[in-house]
Amino acid sequence: MGKILQTIIVLSAALLLSSCQAPAKDAKKELKEKQSAVSVVQKDNTSKATDYRLKKVDAPVEAELQKELQELYNAFKEAVITYDGEQAVNYLSASSFGYYEHILNLAKIALNSAENPQFKLNELSPGIRLNVAMLIAKLKPEEVLSASPKSLVVLAIQEGWLGYKSISESELGFFKKYKAGKNDYILVDYLPKELVKERQISRIGFIYEGEGEQKSWKLDLVPLLAAIDHAIEDYAKQERIDPSVLIDEAVRNTMLLKNKSMEWKTYAYPSDGFKMNFPNRPQIKENQGVKLFAAQDDKGYEYSLSTFSAKTDDDPEDTLNSLAQLYIREHALEKHKLHSSELQGLFLRRLSYELPSSKGIVLFILSKTKKVFLIQCRAPAGVFDERSCAKFLDSFSPAKDLLDTEIAN
Hints:
The chain is of the alpha+beta class.
């Protein structure tokens, strides 16, 4: 079942694409004037946001420096998980802001495409297209045109859009020393905890920049942001779909959240053996025998149900215990409680857990036909409320042919 759990993890990550947007501040000038200011076609439409090239240095990164960089990352991480955008930007490099300046410039040009006939959004790399499309979809034109790179990042962190999920549940790995022009540069393996066992490693950087006494280490997000391109492309190849489909789906879901308040409704899936309440129509993905239904609300809650066949002759109690313990190990859950229960004659385990950045509840349900339902609700620790999860978890209703009153006795 370990492979099944890893499949669920990967599917969940693919469905929960993070996005960024810019704030609408001081939009006092006329839209037409601002459009004319960006009516020049930008020649470089790639994901390249910085001009420096890294040159490897054949020397280890000193333990003291590793500790300093780890503390810098921890401070940034703390600002992210407490939604303190004003503080978080103090830790970021000039190249990080350069990336978002690049996004803003492309979005502004795209908004004025009539005067830029050579500009083609679909020729950009997937990660850049995703961010540009999100900006245009979520904001009014005058809001995009009035944004600055710094205000973009501040708001993205304040609203939990800037990779909250990956940053809040990650750890730094191997440190490697480089030169970025005249500046010292450290490239570090960046490991989201839930994907460590899959070895889906990306990179994050630290650059020693500034002038004179103001020179200090800053966090460079560009390597991490560039990895989004590869992640989208790799997933698209794996699923044999055009990256545009993933981007369009992310934009469509963004528009649903923008134009509608959350409306909890019951969604029925007879062929999958259940019906359940979601805050909006769940996205559905299927891979290697696992079918995942997932949705998010506007408060940061993630709701999902995964279903698959257990394919085991073990005792039902033992099967659920094994699955729950495997989940605990895979997610490195130290603070957790596991309870046995039943639901309309179905075997059930209820797992509640607490991580530094998030809290959640998981239900493991097994039917007489060996069909497993893994139901999850989680949210940032600062907003988690069991009552919000109860609205989701308590709504699960299995199909009648899955019920077995005998095994509960």
